Write the structure tokens for this entry.
Amino acid sequence: MSEEAIRKLRRHFILVTTLTIAVVTTVIALLIYVTNREIALKTIREELNFIIENNGDLPESKDTDGTNENQDNSGVVRFLDEIFGNSPAYNQTEMPYSARYFAVLYDENGDISKVKTGHIASVSEEEARSYGNYALEHKSFGHVNNYYYKWETEDNGTTIVVYLEATSTILANNRIFYLSLFVILLGVLITNLVSRAFAKRAIAPEIRNAELQKQFITNASHELKTPLAVIRANTEMEEMISGQTEWTESTMRQVERMDGLIKNLVLVSRASEQSTHLAVDNVNVSNAVSETVENFTSLVKHENKTLTKNVPDGITMRADESQIRQLTSLLMDNAIKYCDENGEIRVDLLQKGKGIQLVISNSYAEGANVDYSRFFERFYRKDASHNTDRGGYGVGLSIAEAICSAYRGSISADWKKGIISFTCILKQVPIPTGTGKDRKQE
């Protein structure tokens, strides 16, 4: 596994861990805030209802049916009632002395008959009248600044408006809201730091598995080469002695196919290492792409297909020229194999800042309902039995994706009006240099 792949895996682990904690803490904090707010509103409603029931005054009596009933409950039940706001607000002994409120009473004609401001010092009688008229013009329950109000019309046509001062409740709700935000941010920060510290250890098994897979492929390819060479030599000797037969031809075809499969297995195992073995130089991408495409001209004609090339001169970037050629070859080979009969193949090259965009398209009438995201999976072929006749092992696009990733770019496939297009974007980035010789020796 390359250093770039390890960095991506590490970043992915950190991102997933941090987002998970962020979502969980946000949901928990939101539940706490909403629950507390609803309990506070329920308490305020009960207090307002109790004041309205007593015609704008809170009685100083401490004995109520609700209180006696609560006293009969067990301590656990009372505790839960208090936590979730099930205990009636007016059962609190100190409420008549701690509540700050005022009331405005209206007669059956809608005129103010009485204003009660004896339980609040910050509101004058004139202000109370104004507040009362405001409440009647709006819904029956609401709030104005730090006051919650409620009004009711009695059966005899009279109306009472009660305002309850709730500054402490509002401040408590705001305090919980900001505390929740702080806990979320702190949790995300701590999680990010911890995940960064343990990311390498967490992804170590994945790195180990990747290395073992690569080692297995390399060892298996070496072990398979010897018996294949023996089978090839024996078959060739038999053909020299007894001549070619359909059996020897079949054997040779399978040997060639197995040999190609082994080579592609090695290519796949090395694809993820591309970014650390690049001979980076200023490359004339126009020439590299044009020359590579020209090599396929005769094959395109032989397949009775047409080739259109739109490659402007002078497009350059810092890159490994061999990989630009390999990328073009892989996409051209794929286009020729899967282009419709008498179809068209098109190559477009564009300069994108200091990078490039390479688009290779081909006619593909049956591509309307295809999952193109799977095209870049290793050894994936849409129709294995159909594609066997065309050759290939389903690894070309996977290798092309690895090349694009080495340049911090991307490759995508899309289909429109019978044309499938593979778009490669390569960015010019600082890449560790290596020699072509080193790469060949691996």
